[in-house]
Each structure stands twice: as C-alpha cells, then as structure tokens.
Amino acid sequence: MKPVKSVDIEQKNIEQKYDKGLVASTFIKYAAYIIIFFGLLYFIVRYVFPLF
Questions:
Q1: How far is Cα 29 from Cα 23, in angstroms, rounded to an integer?
Q2: Which keywords has UniProt assigned to this entry (predicted)?
C-alpha cells in the first residue's frame, strides 16, 4: 500500500478594487474633451469657413 501524501492547497482571492470616484472623474474629463472638440469644430464651421 502506498502512503497518502497530504497536499495543502493555497487559495488566493483577488478582489479588484473599483473606485467609482475615479471612474466618474475620468468620464467628466473625457466628456469635457468632447465638448471642447465639438465647440471648436462648431466655431470653425460657423465663423472660419464663411470667410473663404
């Protein structure tokens, strides 16, 4: 009869931290970029193109 080996299994629980404040600030930052981009585009179409 073979001896039975005792094996300890180590379990690691990895929890990903989810910071809602960081997500919200990133969303606000990129929303501001998009608003500025479309505002600049509107300005160019409305005031610069008619000059040509």
A1: 10
A2: Membrane, Transmembrane, Transmembrane helix
Measure the CA–CA gap between 25 and 32, rounded to whole angstroms.
11
* Tokens found for residue 20: 């809602």
Cα–Cα distances (Å) from 39 to 7, 50, 52, in that order, read: 65, 17, 20
Q: Residue 17's pLDDT band (boundaries 50, 70, 90)?
A: confident
pLDDT digits (tens, 9 = 90+) for 28-52: 999 999 999 999 999 999 999 888 7
Q: Tell me if the pTM is above 0.85.
A: no
Q: Euclidean distance between the first and final Cα of the chain, in Å?
A: 96
What average pLDDT does the chain have? 88
